[in-house]
Design a protein that fits this description.
Layout (H helix, E strand, L loop, with lengths): L1 E7 L2 H15 L6 E4 L4 H7 L5 H8 L3 E6 L15 H10 L4 E7 L12 H4 L3 E7 L9 E5 L5 E5 L5 H16 L4 E6 L5 H14 L6 E6 H10 L6 E4 L1 H15 L6 E9 L4 E7 L16 H13 L4 H16 L13 H10 L2
Parallel strand pairs: 1-2, 1-3, 3-12, 5-10, 8-9, 8-10
Antiparallel strand pairs: 4-5, 4-11, 6-7, 11-12
This protein binds nicotinamide-adenine-dinucleotide, 3-isopropylmalic acid (IPM) and manganese (II) ion.
The site of 3-isopropylmalic acid has 6 residues, from helix 4.
InterPro entries: IsoCit/isopropylmalate_DH_CS, IsoPropMal-DH-like_dom, Isopropylmalate_DH
Main location: cytoplasm
Subcellular location: Cytoplasm
Length: 352
């Protein structure tokens, strides 16, 4: 079992360190870890945020554990050299089109939610975000108009095959959970979204056991705060999924708690190849101070064990250790406590 670890920038490296400690503590037979550079650190060392060696390392592995990328010093670089291109490049070059972002309540954390405790207590949803299309990967640029103004554009598009495959991911995930799927779009305004909706309805014919609803994204943001219990699986595009998952994180209590799996079609001898990362970024505002919550990264390891290695037991054991730590009052600054990143890692390890 070969896992490529790409810690990246800022707190990415800090939380990845704790996730690796957990991975090592599980004593998995035949585990090899290799480490590669991504993001601003890779740009500084190799002149590119996603060096060829890093991409090759990912391809030669069974799974990737990713920290986070991004650094304010790179905000004015040409876009293709910016740290964020590392994660976008890995997602697209490895064909990782299905991004699973679970948002579930943890016992004892209801008071840290941005929602009232009685609402926070009901959260159990999975955001299934398309990851290879949308405005993220469309033609883009800045041009001069006839009036001498500058005009920026980013083309939003989805093809039927792109929507179809992520719709299947959404329905299959719903089947394994509460059998409810809410497809989120902006079909009242966007052609891309109308096509999205039409294709989702078509695919739904193969999943008569799953209840399908549709919601406009603006209403979905409002409903998530009003009554999160109505959501089981939320199926949506790249941009809407990005935004709604950060929103969902504060319904749970902290962005330092939400993990993700990015999956495609490639199978290894152990399971589905995937990239696993917390949904948060490099957090330059707290980087280097031991203030980051590593739980999202640790929970990403659990998702890796489940999806890429078929180790449901070890995945459950890891998730239980995090849940127990939270129930016991283990808190970093994001949750109103004062434990450091490493101390939170210790607390999870003790309970593993
Ligand atoms: P961010 O997620 O890095 O931080 C947002 C806020 O949440 C900050 O106040 C931060 O301190 C806090 N936070 C985030 N993770 C935390 C954790 N584990 N524990 C405690 N607090 C945490 O988002 P941002 O500030 O908008 O972006 C910073 C950089 O990260 C940018 O360069 C952005 O492009 C990049 N980014 C990368 C990824 C990724 O690598 N997948 C994801 C999101 C943002
Ligand atoms: C995320 C991040 C990325 C995204 C950025 C860093 C490209 O915000 O993983 O949620 O927008 O997908
Ligand atoms: Mn994001």
């Amino acid at each position: 079992m070969k896992i490529a670890v790409f810690p990246g920038d800022g707190i990415g490296a800090e939380v990845a360190r704790e996730a690796v400690r957990v991975l090592e503590a599980l004593n998995l037979p035949g585990l090899t870890l290799v480490e590669g550079d991504v993001g601003a650190i890779a740009y500084q060392r190799h002149g590119h945020p996603l060096p060829a060696e890093t991409l090759d390392m990912a391809k030669a592995s069974d799974a990737v554990l990713f920290g986070a990328v991004g650094d304010p010093s790179c905000d004015n670089l040409e876009r293709h050299l910016r740290p964020e291109q590392a994660v976008l490049g890995l997602r697209s070059k490895l064909g990782l089109f299905a991004n699973l972002r679970p948002a579930t309540v943890f016992q004892g954390l209801e008071d840290m939610s941005g929602l009232r405790p009685e609402l926070a207590r009901t959260i159990d949803m999975l955001i299934v975000r398309e990851l290879n299309g949308d405005v993220y990967f469309g033609d883009k640029g800045v041009r001069e108009t006839a009036d001498g103004e500058r005009e920026g554009w980013d083309m939003m598009s989805y093809s039927t095959s792109e929507v179809r495959r992520i719709a299947h991911s959404g329905f299959q995930a719903a089947r394994k959970r509460g059998s409810k799927l809410c497809s989120v779009d902006k079909a009242n305004v966007l052609e891309t979204s109308q096509l999205w909706r039409d294709v989702v309805v078509e695919v739904a014919a193969e999943y008569s056991d799953v209840e399908l609803t549709h919601m406009y994204v603006d209403n979905a943001a409002m409903q998530m705060v009003k009554d999160p219990s109505q959501f089981d699986v939320v199926l949506t595009g790249n941009l809407f999924g990005d935004i709604l998952s950060d929103l969902a994180s504060m319904c749970v209590g902290s962005i330092g708690l939400l993990a993700s799996a990015s999956l495609g079609e490639r199978q290894t001898k152990f399971g589905t190849f995937g990239l696993y990362e917390p949904i948060h970024g490099s957090a330059p505002d707290i980087a280097g101070q031991g203030l980051a919550n590593p739980m999202a990264a640790i929970l990403s390891v659990a998702m890796m064990l489940r999806h890429s290695f078929g180790m449901e037991d070890q995945a459950g054991r890891t998730e239980a250790a995090v849940a127990k730590a939270l129930a016991d009052g283990v808190r970093g600054r994001d949750l109103g406590g004062d434990l450091s990143t490493a101390a939170i890692g210790d607390a999870v390890l003790e309970r593993l």
